[in-house]
């Protein structure tokens, strides 16, 4: 009879509903939002930090400590000052989005130059096309090299590329090159002085000849 009572349809439905609700709560609570990277700065853009956060409030809490801020904070987009007020809008932001954290009484201001630069760790504007990309690589072929070698590579429109490799020189080779340049310079100065002396001599001889012709007058 106990076995038959346990097979009551209402009891089975109740147990199945309880199990589904418990399972739903476990699945819902075991999947928190993932951590995402963001770039934050203060209103003067002098201090920049890279932070990871899953929610808007978590990012504000971390920015409060990283940027040494206080009071009520406001989160805006650095590029145009759009206020990030809701969690839904925050979740729609892409990874590595540049955000500005404002304290009470502060406001967003555009850049003084009016141009959004990128590079040196900053991402380029979206929907932009590369025209030219130039990379510099400084290296040493030998520990005795006084100056490192320089490799310059330029890529245009992502299709055409060219590179230039400037080899570094060691101390002995640099000394030889300096002596060679000094010898060539002195040689050039010597030729210049010889040319000037020859011109002066011709001028003196011409003036003496003119004076002699002026003194001899025909009768």
Describe this structure in words.
This protein is α+β, with helices and mostly antiparallel strands and 219 residues long. Among the domains are: 36-103, Ubiquitin-like (UB roll), CATH 3.10.20; 132-166, no CATH class; 170-218. The chain is 40% helix and 21% strand. It has helices spanning 2-6, 9-29, 56-66, 87-92, 171-215; strands at 36-41, 48-53, 74-77, 97-102, 132-139, 149-156, 160-166. A 4-stranded mixed β-sheet has the order 2-1-4-3, with helices on one face. A 3-stranded antiparallel β-sheet has the order 5-6-7, with no helix packed on it. A hairpin with a 3-residue loop joins strand 6 (149-156) and strand 7.
Q: Helices and strands in order, then pairings?
A:
Elements: H1 2-6, H2 9-29, E1 36-41, E2 48-53, H3 56-66, E3 74-77, H4 87-92, E4 97-102, E5 132-139, E6 149-156, E7 160-166, H5 171-215
Parallel strand pairs: 1-4
Antiparallel strand pairs: 1-2, 3-4, 5-6, 6-7
Family: Belongs to the CIDE family.
Subunit structure: Interacts with DFFA. Interacts with DFFB; inhibited by DFFB. Interacts with APOB. Interacts with PREB/SEC12; facilitating loading of SCAP-SREBP into COPII vesicles.
Keywords: Apoptosis, Cytoplasmic vesicle, Endoplasmic reticulum, Golgi apparatus, Lipid droplet, Membrane, Phosphoprotein
**Biggest sheet descriptor:** 4 strands, mixed
Rounded Rg: 40 Å
**What do the pLDDT scores average to?**
76
User: Which segments are poorly predicted (pLDDT under 50) over 5 or more consecutive residues?
Assistant: 114-121
- Kindly identify the CATH topology of one domain: Ubiquitin-like (UB roll)
Report the order of strands and helices.
HHEEHEHEEEEH
